[in-house]
């Protein structure tokens, strides 16, 4: 994918050309994850504005994207809206249910290390952290002094370009960076969260419902397994990116 194709996508989702002028940073990541089967990968995008950040998944060619409210409601595509330390996420992991959930981002207690490497031509430094049951190694660059990164990661003195957990279940790798873009955050994204803001539920409540669904799946697997198969003491969230929570 070239820059021209990517800009075509961004232009296609902007409803009003008068919004030009604000400069944003756009990062494309390759996200790889392992859920017990074959490893899966997908493209994810981080759009960083002056006081708002959006993060979402989209796998098809960007110039074919039909980006409207119906698409968001049906696909979800891991859409996240971040402002200050508050995150609103559109969740689609439960069958027959879609939900906007609110999650308060913690103060990440990063351990900054001496290891370095080059990513996309930028000098990067290593840091590590334990977050919600997983230990992660990340690489960030002070060459881009933006304290953001993929998914929920933030609060380092530079843009996060690579993240991997130490079990090799999850990995985010920056593949393209667009600095000082004059393309604004698509108004449709902001309007979506504004329209449904009264339907937001706490993240803890959503996780409780998700855990019930995971337990149901676990019991179904046990019931259909061969006699003698052992499934006791299994962490239901073993293949979830968040295994434990601060309220447990």
Automatic annotation (TrEMBL):
Pfam families: PNGase_F-II_N. Keywords: Signal. Residues 1-17 form the signal peptide. It comes from the Bacteria. This is GLPGLI family protein. It comes from Chryseobacterium oryzae.
């Amino acid at each position: 994918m070239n820059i021209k194709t990517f800009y075509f996508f961004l232009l296609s989702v902007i409803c009003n050309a008068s919004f030009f002028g604000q400069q944003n940073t756009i990062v494309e990541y390759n996200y790889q994850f392992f859920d017990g089967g074959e490893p899966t990968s997908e493209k994810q995008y981080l759009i960083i504005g002056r006081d708002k950040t959006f993060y979402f998944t989209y796998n098809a060619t960007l110039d074919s994207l039909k980006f409207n409210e119906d698409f968001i409601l049906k696909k979800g595509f891991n859409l996240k809206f971040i402002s200050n330390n508050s995150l609103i996420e559109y969740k689609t992991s439960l069958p027959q249910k879609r939900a906007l959930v609110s999650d308060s981002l913690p103060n990440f207690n990063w351990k900054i290390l001496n290891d370095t490497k080059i990513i996309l031509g930028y000098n990067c430094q290593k840091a590590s952290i334990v977050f919600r049951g997983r230990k992660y190694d990340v690489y960030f660059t002070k060459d881009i002094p933006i304290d953001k990164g993929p998914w929920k990661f933030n609060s380092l003195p530079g843009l996060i370009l690579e993240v991997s957990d130490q079990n090799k279940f999850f990995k985010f790798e920056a593949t393209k960076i667009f600095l000082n873009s004059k393309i604004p955050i698509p108004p449709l994204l902001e309007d979506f969260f504004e329209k449904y803001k009264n339907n937001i539920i706490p993240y803890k409540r959503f996780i409780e419902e998700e855990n019930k669904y995971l337990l149901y799946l676990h019991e179904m697997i046990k019931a259909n397994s061969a006699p003698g198969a052992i499934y006791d003491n299994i962490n239901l969230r073993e293949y979830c990116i968040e295994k434990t929570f601060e309220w447990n």
